[in-house]
Amino acid sequence: MNPVAEKDPQEAIITSAVSLEAPWALVEKFSTLVRDSGGKAERRAVDYIVKQLGKWGVPHTLHEPELLISIPKKARLEVITPEARALTAKTPSMSLSTDGRFKRGSLVYLPAQGVGGIIGIFEGLGEIAQDVSDKVVLAEGYPSPGKVIEFQEKGAVGAIFISPGERIHEGICTSIWGSPDLDTIRRKPQIPVVAINKTEGSWLRALAQAGPVKVKLSTKLDEGWRPIPVLVAEIRGSEEPDKFVLLHGHIDSWHEGIGDNATGDATLLEVARVLWKHRDALRRSVRIAWWSGHSHGRYAGSTWYADTYALDIDENAIAHINCDSPGCRWASVFEDVFWMSEAEGIGKAVIRDVAGQEAEGGRPLRAGDKSFSNIGVSTFYMLSSTMPQSLVKEKGNYPVGGCGANIAWHTEDDTMEIADRDNLLRDMKVYAAATFRAANSTIYPLDFRATAREFAQTLARYQDAAGTHFDFTPAKDEVEALEDDLERFYDAAHALMQKPVIDPQVRRANEIQRRLGRVLVCINYSRAGQFRHDPAVNVPALPDLEPATKLAALAQGSDAYRMTRTHLARGRNRVVAALREARRILEEASV
Questions:
Q1: DSSP state of 404
Q2: pLDDT at residue 3 in the model
Q3: For the chain, which has fewer Cβ within 10 Å, the N-terminal or C-terminal residue?
Q4: Is the peptide bond before 82 cis (omega within 30 degrees of 0)?
Q5: 3-state class of 380 per DSSP?
Q6: Interatomic CA distance for residues 89 and 85, integer angstroms
């Protein structure tokens, strides 16, 4: 039985009701607003959406939490020796502000060794062979939190990043997810960070490779706790209103931010309009949220919502869907859209049914307002449609984190020409159908058999890497048993597909799926555990066990070897205990 095969007959009515009129007007309006988190222009953007929702009668709430926001204002970089030269520079959000005062140091260049593709935007460099203590580090790529953490821990006094193109891409360099707490504040960047463009970066790299270089850099950021808008519309379901699907995206931007994310904001608005108009067909509720603090607070708005409504989300959220960068220029295919394994079925099926395409995706990155993984909520989609790889290569583009693979992402070039009317109409229909289907499926459209298969593959990979140095058999045995239990559960659930949503057996089956997600999603996407937020660096599959990939290379008997084995033993205990808990949950379903 495939739980995602169910398609509500009224879904075609929902998609046919999607129109460009209101969303395109929003995109045009937002092209006049540079939406800094908590700024006046962003507030005008929120007021625009509130006015539209009010005109249609869509219920909504505007929250204004005070969160830590960092707005870059100015950066300077000057080469002192062997020749004096000023370079154009920008500083990322959450870099240490020197308040315009210069920090001096000798330059050390670290050769590129990053991961290709979009994941490389969020990765660190790993092992750093050179001595960077008391040095200003020069490295290629984006100022990712992983790299900044590594440089800081190695004693660097500053960092310079060479952008892959002639535009310097804006960004944020902290690994703290959302606003800091007492545990995470220690990870706040303590060094100034700047980025320069490709041409000037190539010159500086050649200079550093030729001999000693001294530089000075300064940064200025407007940083502090300030109120930011979090706007949430809610369309109540007619049969099981307490349960909900969360559709969301960010409203703040870098510059005009048309492809990232005015088109997404427009999509959310249109889905709200259509679902409100057809609310009698909606079985469960849909919440649609516009977050601020994405760009300038490391997902501050969505994290606040996850914290503030954590228990409600834990008890009632079915799934969450992120809407970022739909409807962009030349974005004709669906690749790298991302989904958790249990949601792959619905993610692919909706795109196939609505857009007539086979989608490609994979494990979600630790990015894109994925602020609900620690609670254990399944998700699908992060980015939307994108350019075909052949076109990316033809244009000589490099990986970016949105805008349909347009390299205008996070630059002054993300203007109206990035939006495409036809692509936006198609993508809005995809999001409307996905949200409607997730809310209306009799049995939640999640398949945890796929999650168990992912676990089996992950454990096999880790066992191959560890060899005889560590034994994952207890975890592998539990996964095999879980797979058998899940087959029986979904076979039984198949017989319930024609029953009403409020049927006690249906509700019980869905409660089983909810509880499974809270256990299995957590061990697959979090080290910190439920209700805490992991750092904004990539989280590997079954992260407690990932050090197995390095164990065999360590000298037996060394401190590192022994500590890694200890770490794996504790991680294995956590995974086995979670798998047994999942099996107990399924056992209750058969009683």
A1: G
A2: 55
A3: C
A4: yes
A5: strand
A6: 12
Phi and psi at residue 447, to the nearest 5° = -130, 95
Q: What's the pLDDT tens digit per position in 106-153?
A: 999 998 765 556 666 666 666 787 899 999 999 999 999 999 999 999
Of 268, 293, 382, 196, nearest to 23 by C-alpha is 268
Q: Who's near 424: CB < 8 A, 6+ residues apart? A: 20, 23, 24, 27, 263, 266, 267, 326, 327
Task: Measure the CA–CA gap between 519 and 582, rounded to whole angstroms.
Answer: 7
501: left (phi over 0), alpha (psi -120 to 50) or beta: alpha
Q: How many CB atoms lie within 10 A of CB 185?
A: 11
Q: Which domains does the chain have, with CATH numbers?
A: 3-65+228-440 (3.40.630.10), 70-223 (3.50.30.30), 448-590 (1.20.930)
The per-residue b/e assignment along 282-319, b for 16 or more CB within 10 angstroms, e otherwise, is: bbbbbbbbbbbbbbbbbbbbbbbbbbebeeebbebbbb
Contact present, 80 and 214 (Cβ < 8 Å): yes
Q: What is the predicted pLDDT for the residue at 128?
A: 80
Tokens 């994290």 belong to 303
Q: pTM value?
A: 0.96
Cα separation, 558 vs 546, in Å, equals 19
Question: Residues 6 or more apart from 299 whose CB is under 8 A from it?
Answer: 177, 178, 291, 293, 369, 371, 536
Taking CA atoms, 3 is separated from 12, 151, 219, 507, in Å, by 19, 47, 53, 15
The phi, psi pair for 154, rounded to 5°, reads -85, 0
**pLDDT tens sequence across 274-296:** 999 999 999 999 999 999 999 99
What digits encode the pLDDT tens for the residues 143-168? 999 999 999 999 999 999 999 999 99
Positions of the chain with pLDDT lower than 50, given as ranges: 1, 591
Helix (H, G, I), strand (E, B) or coil at 329: coil
Quickly tell me which residue has 């009632």 as its tokens.
316
Q: Give the DSSP per-residue string, 169-201.
A: PP-B-----SS--TTTGGGS--S-EEEE-HHHH
User: Where would I find the H helices in 193-282?
Assistant: 198-210, 263-277
Distance from C-alpha of 130 to C-alpha of 126, rounded to nearest angstrom: 12
- HEC string of 93-160 equals ECCCCCCCCCEEEEEEEECCCCCCCHHHHCCCCCCCCCCCCCEEEEEECCCCHHHHHHHHHCCCCEEE
Burial class (CB in 10 A: 0-12, 13-18, 19+), 359: buried
CB 306 within 8 A of CB 372: yes
- Rounded distance, CA 86 to CA 199, Å? 13
Give the pair of three-digit tokens for residue 262: 């005015």
Question: What are phi and psi for residue 316, nearest 5 degrees?
Answer: -130, -15
